[in-house]
Amino acid sequence: MLMSLLVPTIALSDSSVAVMSVDLGSEWMKVAIVKPGVPMEIALNKESRRKTPIAVCLKENERLFGDSALGSVKNPKFVYRHLQSLLGKKHDNPQVAVYQKRFPEHHLVTDESRGTVLFSNSEEMQYSPEELLGMVLNYSRGLAQDFAEQPIKDAVITVPVFFNQAERRAVLQAAQMAGVKVLQLINDNTAVALNYGVFRRKDINSTAQNIMFYDMGSGSTTATIVTYQTVKTEESGSQPQLQIRGVGFDRSLGGFEMELRLQDHLAKLFNEQKKTKKDVRENHRAMAKLLKEAQRLKTVLSANAEFMAQVEGLLDDMDFKAKVTRVEFETLCADLFERVPGPVQDALSSAEMSLDEIEQVILVGGSTRVPKVQEVLLKAVGKEELGKNLNADEAAAMGAVYQAAALSKAFKVQPFLVREATVFPIQVEFTSEMEEDGSRILKHNKHILFQRMAPYPQSKVFTFNHTDDFAFNINYGDLSFLGQEDLSVFGSLNLTTVQLSGVGSSFQKHTDAEYKGINASFNMNESGVLLLDRDEKVHPESVKAQEEAAPQEEKQEPGEEQQQQEVAPTHEKTEGGKLFDRLIDRGLSPGYLQIHCNNVCFLPVRLQDLTDRDLKKQEREKTLNSLEAFLFDTQDKMYQEEYQAVVLEEEKENILAKLSQVSTWMDEDGYSASTKELREKLQSLRNLCKAMFFRVEERRKWPGHLATLESKLNRSSFFLSSKLVPEDDRIFTDVELKTLEKVINETSTWKNNTVAEQEKSSPTERPVLLSKDIESKWALLDREVNYLLNKPKAAKPKAAKPKAAKPKAAKPNNNSTTESKELPIKEPTGQNTDSLSQSQPTDKTTRTGTSVIGTVSAIETTFLRV
Ligand SMILES: *[C@@H]1O[C@H](CO)[C@@H](O)[C@H](O)[C@H]1NC(C)=O
Ligand SMILES: *[C@@H]1O[C@H](CO)[C@@H](O)[C@H](O)[C@H]1NC(C)=O
Ligand SMILES: *[C@@H]1O[C@H](CO)[C@@H](O)[C@H](O)[C@H]1NC(C)=O
Ligand SMILES: *[C@@H]1O[C@H](CO)[C@@H](O)[C@H](O)[C@H]1NC(C)=O
Ligand SMILES: *[C@@H]1O[C@H](CO)[C@@H](O)[C@H](O)[C@H]1NC(C)=O
Ligand SMILES: *[C@@H]1O[C@H](CO)[C@@H](O)[C@H](O)[C@H]1NC(C)=O
Ligand SMILES: *[C@@H]1O[C@H](CO)[C@@H](O)[C@H](O)[C@H]1NC(C)=O
Ligand SMILES: *[C@@H]1O[C@H](CO)[C@@H](O)[C@H](O)[C@H]1NC(C)=O
Ligand SMILES: *[C@@H]1O[C@H](CO)[C@@H](O)[C@H](O)[C@H]1NC(C)=O
Ligand SMILES: *[C@@H]1O[C@H](CO)[C@@H](O)[C@H](O)[C@H]1NC(C)=O
Ligand SMILES: *[C@@H]1O[C@H](CO)[C@@H](O)[C@H](O)[C@H]1NC(C)=O
Question: Where in the sequence does UniProt note compositional bias of the Basic and acidic residues kind (predicted)?
């Protein structure tokens, strides 16, 4: 199916045609690629996982990413994560304070030049969130390249739909620092909707269908209403289209907040246990461990009613153990669950729709796995059930990579039209002089350029009739739909002030020419980034957009537009052009100034220094990863039924203790340990768990192995019985047949006894029934049967080549005991028994015979190959 969606065409000039997507969440990222021959795939990370924590650990000369970075709990202050909430934020933004409270180990200072924040560990070690995100993006490209086995430059990156101009620009800047070419920033909800649509192309017709996606991730929650339908286009006829109709969001509702509640709860429990005089909350490292445990707790409580949280040596070598129930968890988060319906309501009101118009509500995002979230949501939407037919974790990455393939010229992709919607309205504001009652007064004007839910990309041209130098502001429009808290997080409502000079002098010089006004074209591009543009031919939407906007502008500000005065002959126009060029240069974002070049250029140099060391470190990192993966996997296994069934409490405790011990060691000393030490730790753990793993593996193999043995026994017995004909009419001696019979008997006895014995013994002991013994038993059976099968080749020249032997048994023959001396061997043509019985329809007995013949020939083929 995928192949029909994406048909890679011939590569263009260079070979680097693979493209990637990065689904950037607040906590995790998922990377997907498309390359010729590989439709759409999630790129596995170095630990072979499908998602990677967004985390960088920068310590002196070390640089770690993803799981490895998070592994260094010993030094949380060198581990940078949850960067999303800091992007494009001024230092006084409440979200910065929240971050500081959550991660007290970090020292955040103001970047004087931009007013934004910097992580400051020392004079030399100051990093902006954009810079850190740049490193993460560069790392994600590394993962994609390793997976694609070719260089990759182009990417589609997801952003939360509620990202404003400053936040979007911050991501673009990070990508620029990483040298990643951004084909588009796609809203994550749109990426999900696209993924949903492309796989249901055939269900989309001219009747509009409204679907709501409810996405609760780690950091935020979004509800999106999407309309799917086919539309007629001039170029290529009828095509499927998705249109974002309504969006509601809660910037801070997500799984991470739940984990923080649990972390706090665990801290409280530990303090109450009074194992030490210290307050665990004051120890960053211990709190980092509790957060890790809280994460596990949240996951486990989604499936279990209660769970024993435990951390070895949490503080002052004191272990921590406490039971937490799901009910307690739900109480801790009660106010969060109350916020679940909020985004649904907001999405409906922005779309001006009612719930009846929504056909289905589909769950997206890892945190929708929390049972209470589903319960509350289901009630809020009043549907019979919630749609769970989408890959909650990967839909955004897959939708984004589809878009990447569509935008890249190297792939031919079936078109799927996407109509994005502006979440935050944008308007232009300025003062103009007016004649009123004979006196000149100043009037403040507002014109909406992009209203809420206006589709984009699109351009809007606005014509000023000013005849003197003037300034205009570009601001966000009415954001009253945001709550007070969101408004304060949003930051300044002013986007930029544009000062035009040279207008007055130009007007004075050309009083005789016809004045057509000054056109400014505002373009909301594919990435949802607003640009000031002087090219009016930018987008076909532009004309339409103007028509749409016209009545409104007329209503709000009659007659402001065109003034019939001649000012600018042709050469002045170019000057006007230059004027706007300069404006474009300045960027449209004093609300968030660009990081100046010093900083940008500085970055790669500094990172380059590390590259040689990186190479040397690779071996160590690999070992570290294996050890971490082993710890992680085994800890996980200890809670799986299959493993619990084969260990005694004592052994389990012992393994858990050792795992935890090594875990702690990793957090503390593992960070600086040598490759050798890491290897030794890993080996000792492997030895410790070997017996348990062996038991589980054996048990896994039993059903298959026993079935194989049983069927080989059946076959051999059948073969034997079919050969028991009068002695002078057969080629096998009594001794030969007795030998086979004996082997069959012995095997059957062994099997019965061993299985019985195994049933009596404890699953926590080394198994009596061993897969390798079963294998050797069946090998013995095979050997005997094959010996007999090959005998006639030596005895009778005609049958020497079994391949040439006629499939005599295939003759309609009721009685398999009436065979001649020629063996009933079918030519190993690969024909299956079905086709045989088809070509020679016979009664039941014959079919049984045929089937045996078929199987016997299979045994023979194996033998001949040996
Ligand atoms: C980006 O990552 C690659 C490895 O994938 C590394 O060689 C390169 O130095 C990194 N660049 C920067 C600027 O960090
Ligand atoms: C569109 O498809 C839906 C089912 O997916 C069907 O109920 C409806 O009748 C179809 N409408 C048209 C116009 O084909
Ligand atoms: C923000 O915009 C408003 C309205 O245009 C304007 O009055 C105000 O001066 C602007 N503030 C700044 C700091 O630019
Ligand atoms: C400004 O735009 C309008 C409409 O798009 C156009 O008619 C007019 O000629 C333009 N004026 C200038 C000075 O380019
Ligand atoms: C949109 O504008 C930004 C800012 O100038 C730019 O980086 C980006 O390439 C533009 N186009 C798209 C498709 O994102
Ligand atoms: C611009 O247009 C408005 C509305 O028609 C008018 O009142 C004003 O005088 C015009 N300004 C100039 C400088 O022509
Ligand atoms: C072997 O044959 C017995 C009866 O003849 C049957 O119950 C059993 O399922 C067969 N086992 C296999 C593995 O074919
Ligand atoms: C095999 O077992 C059957 C019945 O269990 C018995 O009659 C026969 O003698 C045995 N054959 C040999 C060779 O042990
Ligand atoms: C082994 O057990 C099966 C099924 O219980 C039985 O049919 C068979 O005769 C037994 N074999 C021996 C050798 O006891
Ligand atoms: C097979 O058996 C059926 C009935 O048992 C009989 O009618 C038929 O003739 C037999 N065929 C052969 C080839 O022996
Ligand atoms: C099939 O074999 C049995 C036993 O050897 C014999 O009694 C019978 O006559 C045979 N039937 C046919 C159709 O050859």
Answer: 540-558
Pairwise CA distance, residues 623 & 569, whole Å: 72
Answer whether residue 30 shows pLDDT above 90. Answer: yes
Residue 815 lies in a domain: no
Short-list 640, 638, 680, 629, CA closest to 657: 638
The pLDDT tens digits of the residues spanning 774-832 come to 999 999 998 888 888 776 554 444 333 333 333 333 333 444 333 333 322 233 333 33
- Nearest CA owner, ligand 11 atom 14: 815
Instruction: Give a yes or no: residue 203 inside a domain.
Output: yes
Of 285, 310, 338, the domain-final residue: 338
User: Which structure tokens are listed for 806?
Assistant: 């006629």
Question: In terms of domains, do 547 and 416 share one?
Answer: no
- Cβ 605 under 6 angstroms from ligand 1: no
CA 653 – CA 551 distance, rounded (Å):
75
Helix and strand numbers (H, E) in the chain are 25, 29
Residue nearest to atom 7 of ligand 1 (CA): 611
Q: How many separate domains does the chain show? A: 3
Instruction: Give the domain extent around 309.
Output: 255-338
Q: Other C-beta atoms within 10 Å of 137: how many? A: 26
pLDDT-derived band at 685 (thresholds 50, 70, 90) equals very high
The secondary element (H helix, E strand) that includes residue 626 is helix 597-637
Torsion angles phi and psi, residue 722, rounded to 5: -70, -15
Residue that terminates a domain, selected from 338, 360, 386: 338
Residue 314, domain member (yes or no) = yes
449 shares a domain with 414: no
Do residues 363 and 388 lie in contact, with contact meaning Cβ atoms separated by under 8 Å? Answer: yes
Question: Which domain CATH number covers 263?
Answer: 3.90.640.10
Q: How far is the CA of 562 from the centre of ligand 4 (A)?
A: 9
Q: Which mutation among 167, 176, 182 tests ligand 5's pocket best, with the greatest number of atoms within 8 A of CB?
A: 182
- Report yes or no: 750 and 781 within 8 Å, Cβ to Cβ: no
- The pLDDT tens digits for 396-443 are 999 999 999 999 988 888 889 999 999 999 999 999 888 878 888 888
Q: Which ligand is nearest to the CA of 516?
A: 4
What tokens appear for 293 in the block?
């445990």
Residues 215 and 270 in one domain: no
The reply to whether 663 falls in a domain is no
